[in-house]
Structure formats: C-alpha cells, structure tokens
Amino acid sequence: MQPDLRLDQQLCFALYAASRATTSTYRTALADIGLTYPQYLVMLTLWEQDGVTVSELGERLHLDSGTLSPLLGRLEAGGLVSRSRSAQDARLVRVSLTPAGSALRADAEAVHCALLERIDMEPEELLTLRTLARKLIDSIEANSE
C-alpha cells in the first residue's frame, strides 16, 4: 500500500495546526494577565506542586534547561517565582511561587474557563482528545529510547 502523503491526511499536520490554534488563543488571553503561554505552563505546574526543582519542571514540561532557565528568569524578574538552592544539595535549584504568583492563579482560572467556552466540543470529547494525545506522547517516548 502506498503511503498517503496528502497534507490533510497527516497526523503530524493536524496536531501541529491544532497546537498552533490552541496556543494562539491562549496567547491572546494570557497577555491580559501578563503571561506568555510557556510561562503559563510553568505556573500551572507550580500551582499544582510548589517548590519543585528545575529538573523536575523540565521533565514535567518536556523542556531542557536551556529553554527553561530564561523562562524562569523572566518569571522571577516579574515577581511571580523565586529560585533557591537546596540546603541539602547545592546542585538542586527549587522554584517556588511568590505571593504574587499564587494570587495570579485566580486570574488564570478565569482565562481557562473563558477559553474552554470558545471550544465547541463536549467535555467528553475534550477528555478523549487529551487522553489520546497523552497516549501518543507516551508511545513516541517509549519507542524513541
């Protein structure tokens, strides 16, 4: 069987276009609360579990330290997070929310709710889509080792 190389038949293109549309929508809404989309992802992680190490953040967000360090620097300069070396192991740098970073969560919740209203999909469809996307990530990561 010949592979179907038409653009609209490519999973990679559908994922790429969906990702661009999603991040573009978030980018506009997040600008109102002073965050970029990557900064929002860092903040989501910290609102879920404060005080994680930089390496834990990188692993969770699938980002290398070269990408994550400047991102954290901007969040720190904006007064939303602080970084500190671990007393037990100076190689570990912990990232913690500041009071301003914690307070920003309420604004982010409002942004999230407003954006969900713009997506014309049922909650079950969104759950299925997220589950399948995670399955795809896990499959690709498992087969690339």
Automatic annotation (TrEMBL):
Pfam family, one: MarR
Superkingdom of the organism of origin: Bacteria
PROSITE patterns: HTH_MARR_2
Domain HTH marR-type, first and last residues per copy: 8-138
Chief location of this protein within or outside the cell: cytoplasm
Subcellular location: Cytoplasm
Protein name per the record: MarR family transcriptional regulator
Organism listed in the record: Propioniciclava soli
